[in-house]
Amino acid sequence: MIDPALDTLLTSTLDRLGGTGPALALLLAVLILVFGLISARRSQARQREAASLAELRFAELLKAQTEMQGRVAAMAEVFGAKQSETNQAINTRLDGLTQRLGQSISEQTRATHENLRRLQERLAVIDNAQTNIQSLAKDVVGLQAILSNKQTRGAFGQSRMETIIADALPSGAYQFQAQLASGVRPDCTIRMPNGQPPLVVDAKFPLEAWNAMSDARSPEAAKIAAQQFRRDMEVHIRDISEKYLIAGETQDTAFLFVPSESIFASIHENFEAVVQRAHRARVVIVSPSLLMLSVQVLQALLKDQRMREQAHVIQGEVARLMDDLTRLDDRVRKLHGHFTSAQKDVDLILTSTEKLTRRGARIGELEFETVAALSESPDAVAEGRTAPPRLRVVDED
């Protein structure tokens, strides 16, 4: 392959010669051949340089590839270790999370069961309360039925009044439906102390007008019902005053029993004229609590009367008790004299025993002495004779 610069030079030279002859053609051919060889050598040199350069670059690439493989292997190893640690840490955390989650689920389950148990208990209590409310509603309906009927309403007030009086007083201190000399029968008569006439208690209360006043839908209807209630109360108070207040047979005051504290309070708050009329007629309007208090006062009075009636018996018993105490005092004094004499005798005996004890102690302190062996003769010792013993008092009183 001809070098482009040589080709350009030959072309320009041929153009200048203009084809002058065969010699020139030959020369030109030689020159072309020389230049071709030179070009071929240069091309081979360049190829060898390119090949050496390619080999050098290939070696560098191999070296770089080897280094890259080593780095990749190191990175793979590092990544493997990191991945193993990460997997271990993740497994550990998952185990801990699983354990905590299991504990939390167990606690939540236990708490849920406990809450369900408490809820069941509360539902049971609510069921019982609902049952009680239903029974109470039935009782209220029954009470409404009782209060809607005049006769049954009177029986209800009579029953409550009888319960209060029977619980507070003894059986002989009251009487229900007792007939008076005029032929009327009050609901209850209570025996008074000191021979006083009995106290009359009436348990009939006009409730129709009161219920109409409570159920009124308009102010005009409520006003009409209030007027009717006032008239009914005045009529009933007049009947009690005329029928039950009998001079010499009953007390000059009677009780009108109202079987509700709320009605009693409303009467004193809204119907002051009725209360004043009852006071003038000597009729006292009482609620269950006031009736109970009055009965307790009467109970105390009756108890005081019984105590006064039994005073002479108590005095006699006290006198006999004093006699017994006097006899007991005399006998105790005699017994004290006997004890005093016995004490003196015991003191004398103790004196004698002390003397005997001291003398026995002195006897025990005596010592027996014998004659010394040196003062005795050898013949006496040989014959076995010794001097008689001699007493010596060591300590004398």
Produce a short descriptive summary:
By secondary structure, this protein is an alpha/beta fold. Helix content is 74%, strand content 6%.
Which keywords apply here?
5-stranded mixed beta sheet; two-stranded antiparallel sheet; single chain; disordered C terminus; alpha/beta; 10 helices; 74% helix; 397 residues; 7 strands
What does this 3D model show about the protein?
Involved in DNA recombination. It comes from Shinella sumterensis. This protein has ten helices and seven strands. Helix 1 (4-17) packs antiparallel against helix 2 and helix 2 (22-148) packs across helix 3. It has a five-stranded mixed β-sheet. Strands 6-7 form a two-stranded antiparallel ribbon. The model is unreliable at 368-378 and 380-397 (pLDDT under 50). It folds into four domains: 34-127; 149-309; 317-360; 365-397, no CATH class. It is elongated. With 397 residues, it is α/β, with parallel strands linked by helices.
